[in-house]
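Anyone else keep sequences and structure tokens together like this?

Example one:
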Amino acid sequence: MLKFFLYFCRENMKSKCVIIIWFVCHNMFAQNITVDGYINIYKELAVSEMQRSGIPASIKLAQGILESANGNSRLAVSANNHFGIKCHGWTGEEIYHDDDEKNECFRKYREAKESYYDHTNFLMRNSRYAFLFEYKSDDYKSWARGLSRAGYATDPNYAQKLINLIERYSLQQYDKGVIVDRTRPAPSATDPQQRADAWEDFASFHINRYQVKSNNRTEYIVTLEGDSYTSLSNEFDMMPWQLPRYNDAKSTDQLQEGQVVYLQPKRRKAERGKVTHTVKADETMRSISQQYAVKLPRLYVLNRMEDGTQPNVGDVLNLRKKKKK
């Protein structure tokens, strides 16, 4: 190889020689991103997106590693597409790449952070993935198998590959939702780590503002003055139907300051230790459902009550299925 370029230099213009030698050396010695390097760059962004949506950070990272070859694939390098999302209704820039078929259309992003953000929205807004949000954010196995069952990838071993990556690199540790420092100003440098940090600050602004909390393994916020289901849907970049459905409400219902609004589907039963509830004055089935983060229809089923009926003061309601004696 070197002999060829030495000969080329003697027979051609020096400027051309310099350009070609630079190009070859750049490609010969450029280092690909390792799995550990990829995790280090994008782990905080994955945690941020988990807090926004409920998608496990471990799943986000494992999919990114697998779909983008640690950020080294053509789609990742040329289009910042880390999740192999195809055009389907896309109005932004495009790139064409051979996948299941030749020359398929894929989404192209300005930066990798946009790919992470769009991946979250893609799962949240696509009805075939809606059931995934019934799973806990630390239940990566159910998420992996659910993604495969919903047809995210055609590889029959897709779920197991995700699980293997998560367990090999201990990605489940990020499902604990570690909060990073969000008080620093957004850096303008082009370094990938700093760009990821800057995006994480931006995307997680609402976490500081609303102080996302958890009840019965379900994330919620407490409303501020002037909030509505529409404004909160825009704030958290969710579909208009999601928050009303998660809270057994109508999109037109008025919100008052200090109300609990769940950002994820409530559970089928109360947490351990909370077996029954004694009804107090002015309580309704929905208010009790909100208090314990138990789905309202399920609360009716647990108590063999007709939908829409209300309990009497002093009634004892079941919050979990009674154990058989």
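And example two:
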Amino acid sequence: MASVYLAVGTATNRLQVLEVGLVNYLWPGLTLVLAVPVLGRKTRVTLIPGCLLGFSGVLLASAPSGESWEGLAGSFGGNWFPYVLAFVAAVCWALYSNLTRRWAREAESGAVPLFLLASGFVLAALRLLVVERTQWTTQSVMELAYMAVFPTIIAYAFWDTVMRRGNMILVASLSYLTPLLSIIIGSVYLGVGTGWHLWVGCLLVIVGSITCKMSVEETS
């Protein structure tokens, strides 16, 4: 969570916010990929092209014009840190999802409340190191309340429960549309015009995740 918020906070502009968000949404596919070594799931050879499709989508979406490797290199070279943070967040969440299944399947409750508290302390400490002007408005308070209740507490708690006791392959599969919904909502809310390369990249991430899902054995 700290990595996600830092990725968004260090993005150069609003378009890059959408791009790093798409990088972070590699986690559904990575959850399925890591289920192979962590949970011992059996896999098919199509897992490799599924991963390649997902990463290709991220690379395409991050290219300023979607036309050249030079433009892509310039994009990452100008401000590569948010992309790295977003990818770290994706790997961490995918790894946590599998480890909680392996270690805490029979537990009464998960570790989400503890991790949320720890994330809050980390972000609060980092806030003290950043010099910026804080401006509270009615809108910002409502946005903060929404972020705290829905995508944080409720969503993470439900996800944690499913990872420990539910059909994790099915739920991870239903998460494939998350990148698309994120791009649509983000572009509208932030008022950002998106190029074709961002939409095609989003589609590749979804197709790659679906391919990964079809490549991993669906066992309980």
